Amino acid sequence: MSKAPPPPGADSTADSAAAAAKEKARREKEERRRLKEIELQMKNIGVGGQADKKKLSKAERRAIQEQQRAAKQAQAQAAGPGAGAGAGAGGGSPGGRADAGSTKSQAGPGAAGGSIKSQAGPGAAAAAAAAAAASGRQARVDMSKYAVVEDKRMHLYVHLDLPDHPPSSATALATEPQVDEAAAAAAGERRPGDVGDFTAGVRNAAFPPGPQVVVGQARDDYVSAEAGAPATVKVTGADGKPAVAALRDAVPPFASGPGQRRYPKAPASVAHTPVHPRIKEIGLRMATMEISGSNSRAIAMLLAFADAIADYTTPANKALTSHLTNYLSPQIHFLTHQRPMCIGMGNAIRWLKSEILDLPRDLTDDQAKGQLIKKIDVYIKERITAASDIIAEAGAHKIQDGDVVLTYGASSTVQNLLVVAREMGRRFRVIAVDSRPANEGRRLVRALVAAGFSGEPALDGVTYAPITALSSLMRDASKVLLGAEAFFANGTMLSRVGTAMVALAAHACHVPVIATCETYKFNERIQLDAVVGNELAVPDALMYKTGIPGAEPVGPQSDPALAAMEYSAYARDKYAARPRWNNRSALRGEPPAEAAGPGKKPKGAKAAPAGEAAQGAAALARLGHACPLSDWRANPRLRLLNPTLDITPPEFVSVIVTELGMIPTTSIPVVLREYKN
Amino acid sequence: MAGAFDIVEHYNSLLQADSSISAPVAAVGSLVRLIESQKATTMLELMMIARAACDRLKKAADNPISLSAGCDVFLKQISRLSNTQSVEESRRALIKSGTEFVQGAGRFRDRVAEFGCPFVRDEQTILIHSYSRVTMGLLARAVKQNKRFRVYITESRPDQSGLRAAAELQQLGVPCEVILDAAVGYIMAKVDMVLVGAEGVVESGGLINKIGTYQLAIVAKAANKPFYALAESYKFVRLYPLSQYDLPTYRSDLLAFKERRPADVDWQAELAKSNPMLDYTPPEFITLMLTDLGVMTPSGVGDELIKFYLD
After folding, report:
1. Within this chain, do residues B115 and B15 fall inside the same structural domain, yes or no?
2. Complex confidence, ipTM
3. Entry's SUPFAM superfamilies (chain A) (predicted)?
């Protein structure tokens, strides 16, 4: 909420209103540019190696501007901390933030991170990333990166769209992300069959020896070993007051109850084995959910393995085929330690291990490594990226003119498919169903709007809706399109939590359910319920509307891209072009009586027209973040459950679109069997 | 080239010459003749010629579904041969295997009858739909085995092909009755099993057949009567319909509300013109598939297709 320009509080003058408008326009511009940037980064997976002088200076200039702006704003806030804009937040008082912003603004890359806190603008985050990356060119592992990560995490669920894929290698990390308008335009023309240039990623670059991390030590040690201080984030303490916690505590992958964190203990066999810096990097980025989505995670992991293999040397008196697997297992363990693997990653690892074992024994180290890296490259292309493109192409033919396609969450393959169908000239409407706390659907909506799904709402627009509206929306849908995390041998689909509900509703309404899944995510196991092996996300995510302690309230106020989008308001008209408010007063002036009480969520926080965003944010800030669950850790009988996945029975899925063709759920065992031979 | 050999013409003449030949077989036969008349120097050229011919056939035929199964098999065969042999060798091999396939096509139907016959038992009442060669083959075989059964046959509008089936069965000495398509629900309680042929069997395990098959399947399921589909394996098509309107034969003008002047409407004539000739029966309504590869569950068809096209 600190995003609101200087408070419209008690005595807002005409001056401040004008300033607010100006500020808003600037922010919108910033946001548009950022979106473009991110899109470009996503297209540029693995080609971020070459630094361009001109572009670099551009990014630097922007970063400096950002810092100045942040500092200015911090001063403004410090001048009137009681004015209300940032009051009552879970994540640090406005004064504290201003401090962070102003003090850090002297300190180079750190300032970029600080500016996010004081300004909380998504544009700032991107700029910060650019600045951090730019400054990181000297030092291979730069602490600023972690500062950025830390800040990204703060707004993770709110609005931050990070590139789904890591830069191609550790070297690429140290250079700035490419920003080029012309290239962005070119990247916009998506060619079918374009699988991205991964060869750049799987390069045989030798790493200079980086700081070594020993599995079995706390994550703090790993960070502090490099920069001298543990990474911290601001969280809400048990008493409801903002507190500073180590990153490790704020990212408990398996937190399940008061004070319980089930970090798997490193087995004795892998303790004190060095972990490759690239593995460490992607491990952390996965833990902070910066890299999420099973395709992205699998690709990131395989690329990191390629780098790790490139740096591997077989010890004397050992054979590569037997020892390399031993070398990889602590790396794998480290990754699992950061965040549980998804099925696709597990399958990829199993494949890699069998490839290592199958290597001819008479190869030299370099030959063997070269072969493996090449195979990894091919695997990524054939089984993941090209597969996803083939699926998009094949699935797009299933979409007909006039269709209403309902989708849930955000799957990269589904997004591809919809965009390809659109490029084929199909005119159809999309209903993007989403749910908290992750709100991933916004990423999809944003991408779709950028891809041109913003015309006639009734014809080819996008409707964004919460999952609670599912039963009424399903009646409109003619097809349901779902991404899958994995398919099991009995035809069960593993997917983002909530998917089973969507499939069930579709089944009840006789709407065909199309699932998309690359075959590398098919698994021989059988799973009968969603409890076993489910990954539990941060329980605190359930306390807040955003999912992240201290972060901003959910809503277009925090997300200009959504605010700019035209909402479908069923209250007036199914395909309404203009947003509507249920309770405008709640956002204009006084908080409504029912929302003011503790525990009540502010009403109308779901949709805001762009013009009222600032007022809305301020009003929400006044309502505060009182949450009945905020002290849940103090109550030993209270547990919060935030599972990530669920399973969908095979009879709810009409067809699976794979790169091998369209198959029924009953044919999964055949694919598993045939692919083995 | 079109002057030398017209594939569509050849295809049609094949179908006319022999009423027992089915569309996919005729398609393969025509493609074999085409390859014979061509002098392709590279495998790619051969492939392209065959592809173009397949597209022409599909466009020319009013029902491309079963025909495309034959085309797919042939194209797959080309790509399989091209991996191992020289152009001339594979051309010869292609002609040889194609000719063998056409000549042996009759045997596919016999084998279906062989696998299906045990399902027909004495004193049974069977409901069949429309006219289907493979169903007639099975019933004829059952008669030969001295099985005593009765058959209800749907009239199967608009071409009334059920009447033809009735005439043939009468010849065989099978007691039969023709029922209205609308009487399916009425008669279902008296029926022991339902037998239908197939225009095409699709990857989902469902089948595409003469209009009316779907409602027959729904009624049979509601009455808990077994519903068996008979199909030669060359009718397995690489299609995955999600609904009735997701077939290659779908036209948006079918049963669309059109503007007509009340005076001119000849509803009788409109019927055949604006109605679809095929429908899609989803796998959950089919009890078993009786094929020349054996008796399989609907999902087994998908498995067979994957096995065939994956390697």
Report:
1. no
2. 0.85
3. NagB/RpiA/CoA transferase-like
A336 confidence band (pLDDT: 50, 70, 90): confident
Contact A160, A346 (CB under 8 A): no
Q: Could you tell me which residue, A549 or B254, shows the higher pLDDT?
A: B254
Can you tell me the mean pLDDT for A397-412?
Answer: 92
Q: Which domain holds residue B45?
A: 7-103
pTM of the model: 0.67
End position of a domain, from candidates B103, B133, B158: B103
Q: Which chain A residues have a beta carbon less than 8 Å from that of B306?
A: 660-661, 663, 667, 670-671, 674
Alpha helices in A489-645 (DSSP H): 499-508, 560-564, 584-588, 593-596, 613-623
The per-residue pLDDT for A659 is 92
| Cβ–Cβ below 8 Å for A514 and B299 | no
Q: Give A165's DSSP letter.
A: S
Q: Does the distance separating the beta carbons of A398 and B246 come in below 8 Å?
A: yes
B182 shares a domain with B86: no
Question: Considering only CA atoms, which of A69, A125, A78 is closest in space to residue A99?
Answer: A78
Residue A168 is encoded by which pair of tokens? 């191609």
Same domain, B47 and B193: no
What sign has the CA pseudo-torsion A213, A217, A223, A225? negative
- C-alpha dihedral over B136, B142, B145, B149, to 10 degrees? -120
Distance to chain A for B282, nearest Cα, Å: 10
Tell me if B2 is assigned to some domain.
no
Q: What is the pLDDT of residue A662?
A: 92
Q: Which has the closest alpha carbon to A230: A244, A242, A241, A216?
A: A244
CA distance linking residue B285 with residue B152, whole number of Å: 20
Distances (CA, A) of A389 to A297, A383, A455, A519, A572: 17, 10, 25, 13, 39
Which residue numbers of A have CB closer than 8 Å to B's CBs? 398, 400, 479, 512, 514, 654-655, 660-664, 666-667, 670-671, 674-675, 677
* Lowest mean pLDDT across A88-92, A287-291, A623-627: A88-92
- Report how many domains make up chain B: 2
B299 and A664 within 8 Å at the Cβ level: the answer is yes
Among B287, B283, B231, residue whose Cα is nearest residue B112:
B231
Minimum-distance CB partner of A655 among B238, B240, B245: B240
B203–A671 CB contact, under 8 Å: no
Name all domains of chain A by residue range, CATH numbers in brackets: 265-388 (1.20.120.420), 397-537+644-677 (3.40.50.10470)
Domain end, chosen from B61, B85, B103, is at: B103
Does residue B1 fall inside a structural domain? no
pLDDT digits (tens, 9 = 90+) for A618-643: 544 444 445 566 677 788 888 778 88
The secondary element (H helix, E strand) that includes residue A118 is helix A109-119
Residue pair A621/A1 in contact (Cβ under 8 Å)? The answer is yes
CATH number at residue B119: 3.40.50.10470
| Statement to judge: residues B195 and B77 lie in one domain | no
Give per-residue pLDDT as tens, B20-71.
788 888 888 888 888 888 777 777 888 888 888 888 888 887 778 888 888 8
Q: Among A479, A661, A670, whose Cβ lies nearest the Cβ of B303?
A: A670
pLDDT digits (tens, 9 = 90+) for A216-237: 333 333 333 333 333 444 444 4
Task: Check pLDDT > 80 for residue A61.
Answer: no
